[in-house]
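Please supply some protein, with fold tokens.
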Amino acid sequence: MSILKRSLRYRLKGDGAFWLEPVASNEPKMFNRVDFILDHCRDKRVLHIGFTDHPFTEPRITDGSLLHLQLQQVTPNLAGMDLEATAVQQYISITNDPLVFHGDITIEYPAEVIAFNPDMILLTEVLEHLAEPSNAIEVLYKSFPAGTTVLVTVPNYTALDSLAASFNNTESIHPHHHWYFSPYTLRRLMDDKRFELNQLHFGMYYHPKKRINLVLKHYPFNGDCIIALFTIIKSGEHG
């Protein structure tokens, strides 16, 4: 990694720098994705999009790894929404939790979800599944007020798995995904006229409390995913 970094120093100045984009105003760090989500949702009013983790709903409820169940341990104000109607009903039948809803975030949010009035919306590992993620962002922006926080995680195009696969003339990607993202393309999708970027980091797909890969502590840009916190802004309001 260090050799590759040194070999590209020429891109950091002169004409080559034209193609370089700053990632964020903060210094990006490496986090355990689940720990970051739980820490930032603690004691907040949270709407969790894609909460069923379909098609793994039942086994992840059984073994306790379903993120929605983990969120219940850190916030008493939690609602879920998912496109998979069967998985929503399956979740309700097993858990008896009624505060979950079926809906398509690319079309509209149910009135009950908007009335829930979340101060944090979790859009984690969702956008890459959508053929038209820009539609989902437009509907989200129109549905919720200024000041609402949106926590996004998406697959990172420079993840170590992706680099390793490329060295073997193949590609590491979930067969249901339409997209990878970079910090720049994520910020284009959630543009600064509608969303203020508060933090941008990188994450590993680990279970809670698992130690971060030591290599990636030094090279966070090669983490599994991008983690970003945005705030909705409206009518020229800006942090």
Remarks:
- The chain has a mean pLDDT of 90.
- Residues 85-95 form the longest helix (11 residues).
- The chain has one domain: 26-232.
- Residues 21 and 74 are 36 Å apart (CA to CA).
